[in-house]
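If you are new to this repository, start here. Below is one unmodified record pulled from the training split, so you can see the exact layout before writing a loader.
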Amino acid sequence: MKLPLLLIFVIAIFSTVFGQVNPNKDRQVVLQHNKIGKTYVFDRSKKGDYNRTELTYLGTLKTKDRRVFKILISRWYWGLVPRATSRIVVFNEKNQYLGNYYVGMTYDLPNRIQNNTLVFENKDRRDCDSSIVTRISFTYGLPKEFFLECKNKMGDIYSFGDE
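And here is the target side for that same chain:
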């Protein structure tokens, strides 16, 4: 009797954690349209169960050695009471997935690319200094991690991963 309950529990966890339909298909659609700043919505929700992805193409960042990184921001709303998974998704110039930065909150996503830097504004970050703007350069390649300041030199560190 304990084994079937455990099996049901494991299936429920995996369906919640891995329930998003292949996100790379949706990401490729957005990259192929090549429209900077446009948000594309892919809603596969069913009654009582959210499954909605919002993808925005921010543009490209170039390195000193002429490599090009294409940047998408991703918000995936999922579950019975919607939770969000937010990522900065990175591709090369051939639209091949390189990895992502998993960020804690949707308001921790960058706002735009400007002067070859990823720009984060604290406008929507609760309890943060709204005058602080963080700029992340990719001039020397993909940063392994970056610091997003909130206020008084405090904030969050986000790391690059390929999962």
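Two things worth knowing about this chain: Residues 22-161 form one domain. The chain has one domain: 22-161.
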